[in-house]
Design brief:
4-stranded antiparallel β-sheet; about 25% strand; alpha+beta; globular; 3 helices
């Protein structure tokens, strides 16, 4: 995902700007892995294989997100409890 595309995204719940934490990029500076966070509603949206996962809460599958978040927590010293909200 390109940085200029991410700049156009907003939180689907409250339409606020999102903060980006980049965890992995390719040689062209496209974001492969990262976390988009809303400071207002405190929701977090992972970016996996360049795709932001921004589904509504009732459709999110934390069991599928958990292994990725666990790997990120280990590799990047992140608190997964805060990431899942």
């Amino acid at each position: 995902m390109k940085l200029n595309t991410i700049a156009k995204l907003c939180c689907p719940f409250d339409k606020q700007d999102l903060q980006l934490k980049i965890l992995a990029q390719d040689v062209e500076q496209n974001i492969l892995e990262g976390i988009l966070s809303c400071n207002t509603c405190k929701r977090n949206y992972p970016i996996v294989y360049g795709v932001p996962i921004m589904a509504p809460d009732e459709y999110r599958q934390t069991a599928l997100e958990q292994p990725i978040l666990d790997r990120w927590a280990k590799d990047y010293q992140l608190d997964t409890a805060k990431l899942l909200g």
